Amino acid sequence: MCSSDLFAAWAVAGLYGSLGPALVHRLGANTGPAVGGGALFLLAVSGAAASYVRRNHNPTAQLVHGSITLAIGAVVFIAAVQAGSFWALMLATFVAGVGFGMGLQGAIKSVALLGQPHERPGLLSAVYVVSYLGMGAPAVVAGWLVSRGHQLTTVATGYASVLIVLALVAAAATVRARRVPVAAC
């Protein structure tokens, strides 16, 4: 397992947690605060659903498929932001959430298999340190940039672009490290 898998998965949560409500408000016109939070809720629900549906699949395949799906969600996110489409943003959120769920579950399963039962708490603690750094660090940078006068849509597009690269690098590194066919589920 590559730490970039975890970083990319949680970075998408940071994107929606930090810039999501403002983007939803901008693209959804007269939406209230609940709708702004709804995007993050949709990300979590689609991630949980994907985790449940794929719970018995190969962890490596989950990592690869999750990273690729996350990248696709980020591409749709950029298109939605550029087009100013609220509904395309919701579609992007759903797709990115599916990638988030698969990637996170694959990462946790991969790490849990590495150690003996008595070592797993320490391993999973390391997973969550990387996870929360992945969520927090990019979100803080994005919030700082917006607070310094950078356009919200420009920062969001840049954030999603970096996320695409990170997710694809993670998928490639996982395939290379595991030498497992991508279609193996």
What is this structure, in a nutshell?
The chain has 185 residues and is mostly helical. The chain has seven helices and no strands.
The dominant shape is globular
CA gyration radius, whole angstroms: 16 Å
The biggest sheet, with number of strands, parallel, antiparallel or mixed sense and barrel status, is: none
Note the run of SSEs as H and E.
Answer: HHHHHHH
Sheet/helix structural class: mainly alpha
Approximate strand percentage: under 5%
Helix content: over 70%
3D architecture notes:
The chain has 185 residues and is mostly helical. The chain is built from 7 helices and no strands. The chain is globular. Residues 180-185 have low confidence and may be disordered.
Topology:
Layout: H1 3-18, H2 20-28, H3 33-53, H4 59-83, H5 86-112, H6 120-147, H7 152-178
Search tags:
single chain, 185 residues, mainly alpha, disordered C terminus
